[in-house]
Amino acid sequence: MTDRRATPPRRRPSLASGLVVVCVATLFSLGIGEAMVRAVAPQDLSGSWLVHGPRGLLMNRAGGEVRHQRGDRVVRYRFNGLHLRGAPPPPGVPRVLALGDSFTFGWLLGAPETYLG
Fold first, then answer.
1. Mean pLDDT to the nearest integer, 80-106
2. What pLDDT is attached to residue 4?
3. What Rg, from alpha-carbon coordinates, does the chain have?
4. Which of 36, 41, 46, 116 lies closest to 84, judged by CA?
5. Separation CA 1–CA 112 (nearest Å)
6. pLDDT tens-digit profile of 26-62?
7. For residue 66, how far is the Cα from the chain centroid?
């Protein structure tokens, strides 16, 4: 004779535990991917100094400082309240506006090394 003991019914995992497993697996995968990118091909860490103006055009940010990195060269750009690079002009001093491209801006240059500096 065989022993026919009642086996308890198998419990299905809840939806919450399934979501937890998916979230943990996703975070683990993203962490491994981040570690691989940092080890194999590290990225330059730069902030953005461009913002959209009222008409949708890109312009420099108003105020603050931004870190810009290209390879081993790291530069900090400082912007005044007029969306221009550098310190705010002192009162009573004539102002000169220089228009141009990356040479005038001083891309990857400190403020004293720029064309205007």
1. 83
2. 67
3. 28
4. 116
5. 97
6. 999 999 999 998 889 877 778 888 899 899 999 988 8
7. 11
Q: What is the pLDDT of residue 44?
A: 76
33: which 2 tokens?
């991917």
* Joined tokens for residue 7: 């086996």
Burial pattern 38-71, b for ≥16 Cβ within 10 A else e, equals: eeeeeeeeeeebeeeeeeeeeebeeeeebebeee
Q: Are 98 and 106 in contact (CB under 8 A)?
A: no
At 19 the pLDDT is 92
pTM: predicted TM-score of the whole model, two decimal places: 0.58
End-to-end CA distance of the chain: 99
Alpha carbon distance 114, 104 (integer Å): 7
Q: Which residues contact 53 (CB under 8 A, 6 or more apart)?
A: 59
Residues in the chain, overall count: 117
Whose tokens are 């990195």? That residue is 69
How many helices, marked H, and strands, marked E, lie in the chain? 2, 4
